[in-house]
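To: structure desk
From: M.T.
Subject: fold request, one chain
Message: Could you run this one when you get a chance? Sequence is below, nothing fancy, just the single chain.
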Amino acid sequence: MPVWMTGVDHNRAALDVRGEFSFTKKRMEEAFDAFRNIPGLAGCVILSTCNRMEWWLSVEDTAQFSPKEKLCEFLNLCPEDYGEYLVERKQDMAVEHLFRLAAGLESRIVGEDQILTQVGEALQFARAAYATDHTLEVLFRLAVTAGKRVKTETSFSTADRSVIHAAIAMLAEQGISVRGKTCMVIGNGMMGKLSAQALMEAGAHVTVTVRQYTSGLVDIPKGADRINYKERYGFLPGCDLVVSATNSPNYTITHAAMEPLRIDHPICLVDLAVPRDIEPETGTLPGFLLYDIDAFHIDLQSAKLRENIAKAEMILKEEEERFYAWYRGQDLFPRINSLKKSAGEDVMLRLTPVYRNLPLQEKEKEELKREIETAAERMMNKLLFSMRASLSDHSFLESMDAMEGTFREENRKN
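Reply: Done. C-alpha cells follow.
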C-alpha cells in the first residue's frame, strides 16, 4: 500500500492557521469514521500537535482522491484558501519525513523530546479506533524505533528541549526570571504537567488549575499547589507568570474577563496551546505581556549540533531501509506463506511413522500434529526473514526459487 501524508506545520502556517487544522481526540474519532468511506483508503493516522497537523494515509494503488481536498472537506474549509499552507508528501518523501519527525529533526526546537511520544501516541489512538492498517503500523513503529535510537546514540544538547524550557530561557534573556515568582499553570495534560515541573525546577512557586469534576483524580506534579479552574481569575492578579496549555476549544483567558482586573505589577501570559488558549487582545491590556507558542525557539545551529544532525541522518537512513526491505517484501508474502506451509507438511510427513505409533488419543495426536507443523512453519519463517535481511534481492529470490523447487521435487516423489 503506498503511503501519503498531508498537513500543515510551523514552517508554512502561522499559529491561527494551524489552529484551524487542530484535532482534539473527539474530532479525530469523527474524522476516522468519515475517512473510512473514502474509496481507496486502506488506513490512516492523525498526528496533531502544537506545531503541526499531519494526516497519514495508506492507500490502494488505484486511489485517485486528493488528501488536501478530503481533509478540508471534513474540516469545512475551502481548499483554495489554504492551499499555500498545506503540504503533501508521497511514498519515499513521506517515509523520510516521518523518520526525521520522530527523531526531532523537523521540530522548531531541534531534537525536542515530546514529538517522539506524540508520534507513538498518534499510532496508538488510530489503532484503538481501528483506523490504521499493517503498512502504517510497521511504518510508525519503525519510525519510533529510529527516533529512540537517535536519542540514544546522539546528543543535540545537554539542556532540556521543550517549548516551556525555551520560554523560560527566552524570558530570562529579557531579564524576566521565574525564580521565587508565583506562577499559575492552566492545563493538566502533558504540556501542562511539563510546564509546571519545569517552572518548579527553575525555582518558581507553582499552582495548577483543576476542573471541579476531576479535582480529586488529576495527578499534578509533586510540590505544586492546586486551585479550582473557576478560581483562576481571582488568583491571577497575584501571579507573576501564567502559562495556559490545554486542548480546550474555547479561550481559557478572555479579554473581557481580564479587563476589570487591577494589577500592581507586570504579569507575563504564556500561551502554549493550539488553537490559542488566551484571547490575543488580552496582550493589549496595561501590565500584561502576552507570548504565544510561536514566540519561542532555540537557535542551536552550532558546529556540534550540525555534526550530531549528520550522525542522526545516517542512523535514520539505516532505519528507513528496514522499512523499505519490509515494504518490498510484501509481494513475496504469498510465496513465503506457501514455503512455510510446505515446511510444516514436509516435517509432518517425515514424522508420520513415529506419530502414528505414539500411545496417544486421536485428539492428542491432532494437537501434537498442529504443534509440530506450527514449529516447522515458524522455523522456516525465521530462516526466510534472516535471509531477506542479509542477502541481495537477486540472491534472495534465487534462494526462494531453489527451496520451492526442492519442495516440488519432494512432492513429486511422494
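Reply (cont.): The CA atoms of residues 101 and 334 lie 33 Å apart. Let me know if you need anything else for the meeting.
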